[in-house]
Amino acid sequence: MHAQIVQPTTAGASPAGPDHDREVALAMRIARLHGADVRGTTVLAGVVNRVVRVVGDGTDWVVRFPADRRRPDEFPAETWAISRAAAVGIPSPGVVACGRLDELPYLVLEHVEAAAEPVRRPWCWLGRYAATIATVPVDATAPDSLFSRFGRDLPAAWRQHLEYNIEALGDDDPLAGTVYRPEDAPQLRAELKALRAERFRFGLAHADLAPRNLVSRGADEAPVLIDWGNVTTGPAPWTELHRVHQMAVDGAITPADFCDFAEGVDVDLVTARPLLERLSVLSHLDLVRWARDQRPELTPTYEDAARRGLRRILDTL
């Protein structure tokens, strides 16, 4: 049986008080809806979601629900991805229930304790998992939230996504002069056009692969992969490779970590780097355009990251 494993920590947990008491009471209501005889609770670390461990006779569960009720319900996509990942051999959390209580979405997962030994070479495991997750069939049962604004046909959506960003690099592009120098537009356009020739496979991506989301079952045992809340679709396994490459560029992980990840995916970094840089160009430009349209308050942050990232890439061409 696959089980949800939550690291035993109180860091970031809600402090005692009215909010804490409400969260515990809500988690107990949810657990009892599904037959738990709750004898004890522990509020665990959580930012986007509130996370409460509930323990009773024969049950040891983790109850999750969003901190912000306005947040879109991510749990059906997470539940779908967990079941499909488990089917292709990824040790995954066991889903007890996914539903709503008083219009609040929730997810109940099984909890087990982590092994004392840390995972050896976690980034290599993460790379292996990225490659395996990419093989998950994304079929008609997949929730719509796994797909971009360009639709469920993944190859067609990728082409539309790419052409949108190529066409946006025109004379009237508002990003010219703020995110990139106008004289750099032809080079940026050439980098994006080069992506037209790539023959990607498309599939599922966890999109939050990091050692914090691996839970040990022994130093050399396959660890459990948790926290599927960012699951998405795209070029596979390049969606994951691009994200981890950006972490390495930003200094969030070491070059050795990135090499371990690439080894796990079975990709040669020497030949892959030009493609990864082109994907970075696309990502930087697209994120700024998305923020300007959907989340204006995030625009300065994405613009700053894009300026630095595009300058680094252009300087190496």
From TrEMBL:
<dbReference type="InterPro" id="IPR011009">
    <property type="entry name" value="Kinase-like_dom_sf"/>
</dbReference>
<keyword id="KW-0808">Transferase</keyword>
<feature type="region of interest" description="Disordered">
    <location>
        <begin position="1"/>
        <end position="20"/>
    </location>
</feature>
<dbReference type="Pfam" id="PF01636">
    <property type="entry name" value="APH"/>
</dbReference>
<dbReference type="GO" id="GO:0016740">
    <property type="term" value="F:transferase activity"/>
</dbReference>
<feature type="compositionally biased region" description="Polar residues">
    <location>
        <begin position="1"/>
        <end position="12"/>
    </location>
</feature>
<protein>
    <submittedName>
        <fullName>Phosphotransferase</fullName>
    </submittedName>
</protein>
<feature type="domain" description="Aminoglycoside phosphotransferase">
    <location>
        <begin position="43"/>
        <end position="236"/>
    </location>
</feature>
<dbReference type="InterPro" id="IPR002575">
    <property type="entry name" value="Aminoglycoside_PTrfase"/>
</dbReference>
